[in-house]
């Protein structure tokens, strides 16, 4: 059941990213550890962003825009409700970052109780 729920969580995160960013990650892998859902996403950048990161200013702009946008997405009560409904737990904290050079993003969702199946 845990692997199936991890897959459902990944697909929901991809759907949310696609809706709010314009494209979702090409690959997404989620693991549950205690009260954490850790999602690793590869292939996040658009062609325009890939062009922009060829300069230092572009790299900084893309990193700032991506991290701020993702954090803003998860302030939307409708988005949070979708994730909480799936997990039957409340989100208390979210951490997110992207490595521009490797095109890998990580988001850690911290819930109010353990979501890891025993």
What does this structure look like?
This is Na+-translocating membrane potential-generating system MpsC domain-containing protein. Residues 3-113 form the Na+-translocating membrane potential-generating system MpsC domain. This protein has helices spanning 2-21, 47-52, 56-73, 77-87, and strands at 27-33, 36-42, 91-99, 104-111. It is an alpha+beta fold and 118 residues long. The protein has a four-stranded antiparallel β-sheet with strand order 1-2-4-3, with helices on one face. The longest helix is centred in the N-terminal third of the chain and has 20 residues, at 2-21. It starts with a helix and ends in a 7-residue tail after the last strand.
Amount of beta strand: 25-35%
Helix content: 40-55%
Largest sheet: 4 strands, antiparallel
User: Could you give the distance between the termini?
Assistant: 10 Å
The number of distinct structural domains comes to 1
Estimated structural class: alpha+beta
Poorly predicted sequence stretches spanning 5 or more consecutive residues: none
The quaternary state of the protein chains shown equals single chain
| Count of discrete alpha- or pi-helical segments spanning 4 or more residues | 4
């Amino acid at each position: 059941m845990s692997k199936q729920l991890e897959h459902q969580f990944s697909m929901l995160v991809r759907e949310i990213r696609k809706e709010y960013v314009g494209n979702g990650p090409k690959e997404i892998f989620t693991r549950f550890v205690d009260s954490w859902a850790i999602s690793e996403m590869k292939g996040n950048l658009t062609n325009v962003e890939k062009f922009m990161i060829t300069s230092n200013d572009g790299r900084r702009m893309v990193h700032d825009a991506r991290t701020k946008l993702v954090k803003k997405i998860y302030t939307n009560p409708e988005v949070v409700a979708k994730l909480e409904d799936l997990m039957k737990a409340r989100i208390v904290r979210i951490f997110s970052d992207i490595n521009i050079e490797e095109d890998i993003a990580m988001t850690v969702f911290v819930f109010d109780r353990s979501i890891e199946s025993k």
